[in-house]
Amino acid sequence: MVTLTIDGRKVTVRKLSTVLDAARKLDIPIPTLCHHPKLSPSGACRLCIVEITNIARPVTACTILVSEGMKVKTTSPYLERLRKTTLELLLSDHPNDCMICERAGDCTLQELAYFYGIRENRFEGERRLYTKRDENPFIKREPEKCILCGRCVKICNEVQGVSAIDFGYRGFNTKICTPFEKDLDCEFCGQCVAVCPTGALTGTMWVQKGRQQDVRDVDTLCPYCGCGCSLTLHVRRNEVIRVSSSEDTINEGWLCAKGRFGYGFINSPDRLTKPLIRTAPKTSSLIAHYSSLFREASWDEALDYVVRRLKSIKDSYGPDSIAGLSSARCTNEENYLFQKFIRAVIGTHNVDHCARY
Amino acid sequence: MERFRANLLMCAGTSCVSCGTMNIRDALKEEIKNRGLEKEIKIVLTGCNGYCAQGPVMVVQPEGIFYQSLTVEEIPKLVEEHFLKGRPYQKLMFKEPEKKIAIPTMNEIPFFKHQVLRVLRNRGLIDPEALEEYIARDGYQAAAKALSQMTSGEIVKVVKDSGLRGRGGAGFPTGLKWELALRTKSDMRYVVCNGDEGDPGAFMDRSVMEADPHSVIEGMIICAKAIESRKGYIYVRSEYPLAVKRLQIAIDHCYEAGLLGKNILGTGVNFDLKIYQGAGAFVCGEETALMRSIEGKRGIPRARPPFPVHQGLWDQPTVLNNVETFANIPPIILNGADWFSSLGTDMSKGTKVFALTGRVKNTGLIEVPLGISLKKIIYDIGGGIESGRSFKAVQTGGPSGGCIPEKFLDLEVDYESLAQVGSIMGSGGMVVLDETDCMVNTAKFFLEFTQAESCGKCIPCRIGTKRLLEILNRVTSGNGKEGDVELLEELGQDIKATSLCGLGLTAPNPVLSTIRYFRNEYEAHIKDKKCPAAVCKELLIYSVLEEFCNGCGACKRACPADAITGKRKKIHKIDSELCVKCGTCFDVCKFNAIKKQ
């Protein structure tokens, strides 16, 4: 353990902690844009600069490791001036169209601009402009809003192991792109969207569905597989408009493409809301529509029907004429009950699970 | 071994080759053959001689006669006079401009007289592709001594005591760097040589790699022993194909001779050396970016600490030194620390190679003791300002350096003194500027380079240098606003304070140093919309001097914008509304009747 002093307050942290970790432990605010606690440090945005005794230049708190007896100053008129200059530079190459930005109210850059009171900008100049290139249904890119913090690159590489994107070109023309700017080879997990601190990356499905107002957060579990990731559904007027996951969950906030973007079924008009019982075709000719093969029923009627049919099949042909196939979308408990039902009630070992295929 | 009466050491450095060395070599060969002298006279192609201004150049040994500005036409006469009649050919010798007296030998020529050759000890003397020639000049004696008679600690101590500091620019004490790497516990340590010399106009390292590749390799072998390393890399930019070729030949020869590989010279020391070619990014000269590049990743710098001596290439302790630093090592080991520190100032010992260019008469590569005054470099070695104009400033340290005005001409050049006046030693670029150079434009020129070469990782460098350049463009195009100078200063200082690596840290230097010493030029651009040196195109006004114009009409015919009017034999006029300020009229007028201001 190492003890250091930050803004006159003593704090003891583990040996390989950064100064930023130590400051966060004391709840001392240090502005950051490129830092993400689950990704390797970058030191690119230069906002977390602090003054450390015996080091001549300001250093980034996110990259410097703590040492015994270190004395850190996280704020001073000089540091705040430098941070403000950096922010002004960033905003001089940013569309500043928060009025219509999907991320308004949930954007780190906007938040910092607010706290530093940046209205006028001393550095108006050329801005990067790009032709739109979004041939995918999930991720919407607005590269003009990109501040090149590199979080999307890191999460794709370090967490997802996909490395679909990286930095391309250099200097002012640097941008995030695919290798050789070829087509995107991506799993659409949307992790990049989740870590983007600005509106440069959003979900295509989220556009103009609502921002902060009237949005209710509902915590739930993902229904897709047995992993059981925690989800937060963002609900507006009884409709799920976005899905996210917070960092303090079992899945550490990470999600896959299905969990993040696969919520369209919830309000789909095609979704089954009542049990259906198959009926005999009315004519022997070509079937006009599949719905003509089913009729709606109540749960009681449907369950009675299932019981009656299973019993009669078992009686006539024996229990081994029946098999059960379970789903990965069920919980462990449900799957346990299902196999118990097939073995104990039906009396056969013919039971299997879709994940085996 | 064959013996020759004379050796003709022809400079085959890039500058001389581009002036026609190869044609002259062929002509010489032909002539020597015709005269039946091929058994007596040998032609040797050497690395850069340094006196690039006079190229193509050649030195005749053993007399040491220096011939310059060679042409194919003069070769028959030269061979006849010197090698048949025994009379050195005065016409091709160096002459002092005022006295017109030929100076026959190289050592008496002012350009060479004031130089002290340690790093460039073999320049123009040996064939860089022959290991034997390097060995004949005491090559690999230092390595043999270090490997067989010295311990790691002893080598580190000698290098530390010598006071050698990194020649790549930052001037970190080399011995201390080696000691830190040696003390870091690890199974693997690396020696890396930085040959990614990217400063425009700088060719110190290229010259060493091309003219004396073994001196670098020997320095690296000694370093390998000192820090107990088994593997090394030389990172060379691929824009230096000749350096790559010669280094590779040198490395191959070393493997054949048992100077690299397993059990070097039977001492049990193993060291493998490989060349890694850079792909053309300036920022890869920054140590952390360079190592990432060798690892096969995008060459971008990372925050330090951890420093490379603790966590460098593949996270192992790494000593990364510049070409010139390694080339300094063998003589230090051979002659001792005291010998090395006998030259230099209190804080900066030894010699430094500079690429002297700009408005001086003698441009080229020079090696001088640290502590020498700028005046001595510019006037004694450089021969002063060309065409009698007056000196304005000297820009040192490449694009990241600063401009030093006349009042500091007596400054003793070392790391600290240059930093004090707002510049840096850098890798050793030295550009002399005179009254016809606009300082705002000069700052813009260097910033254009650093801005384009920014890696784009950190915000101050990526966007800050872009904004600096935009403001400078505004100033030089006559759109400067009140307060722009202050804005440049503020932004420049903030970029210096917050940038991630050395590139951003030093990029504002040209701007800040020119504001510091030539603020009036900035103000003239902004307030009076005038460029005092008449360089910035948009601010120029061309007009006809009536007393000189005789109405010849040359300017009128040449003007691409039809901005000049006037009848034949009558005084002409320039319409400033139509004028595109191309300067053609100024160039074509034979009567100096066009005024540019």
Structural class given helices, strands, pairing of chain B? alpha/beta
Helix/strand-derived category of chain A reads alpha+beta
Using the 3D structure, state the CATH architecture of the largest domain in chain B: 3-Layer(aba) Sandwich
Please give the order of strands in the largest beta sheet of chain A. 2-1-5-3-4
Strand order of the largest sheet of chain B: 9-10-8-7-11
Q: Tell me the quaternary state.
A: heterodimer
Unreliable spans of chain B are: none
Order of helices and strands of chain A: EEHEEEHHEHEEHEEEEHEEHEHE
Q: Pick out the low-confidence regions of chain A.
A: none
What is the count of helical runs of chain B? 23
Question: What are the SSEs and their pairings?
Answer:
The complex is a heterodimer of chains A (357) and B (597).
Chain A: E1 2-6, E2 9-13, H1 19-25, E3 49-52, E4 59-60, E5 71-73, H2 77-92, H3 108-115, E6 139-141, H4 151-159, E7 166-168, E8 175-177, H5 191-195, E9 201-203, E10 216-221, E11 230-236, E12 239-244, H6 257-261, E13 276-278, E14 294-296, H7 299-317, E15 324-326, H8 332-346, E16 351-353
Parallel strand pairs in A: 1-5, 15-16
Antiparallel strand pairs in A: 1-2, 3-4, 3-5, 6-9, 7-8, 10-11, 11-12, 13-14
Chain B: E1 6-11, H1 14-18, H2 21-34, E2 41-46, E3 58-61, E4 65-67, H3 75-84, E5 94-95, E6 102-103, H4 110-113, H5 131-136, H6 141-149, H7 152-162, H8 174-183, E7 190-195, H9 204-211, H10 213-227, E8 231-237, H11 241-257, E9 261-264, E10 269-278, H12 287-294, E11 318-322, H13 323-335, H14 337-341, E12 351-358, E13 364-369, H15 374-381, E14 391-396, E15 402-405, H16 415-420, E16 429-434, H17 439-453, H18 459-476, H19 484-498, H20 502-506, H21 509-526, E17 542-544, H22 554-558, E18 564-565, E19 573-574, H23 584-588, E20 594-596
Parallel strand pairs in B: 1-2, 7-8, 7-11, 8-10, 12-16
Antiparallel strand pairs in B: 1-3, 3-4, 5-6, 9-10, 12-13, 14-15, 14-16, 17-20, 18-19
Helix pairs in contact in B: 6-10, 6-13, 7-8, 7-10, 9-10, 9-11, 10-13, 17-18, 17-21, 18-19, 19-21
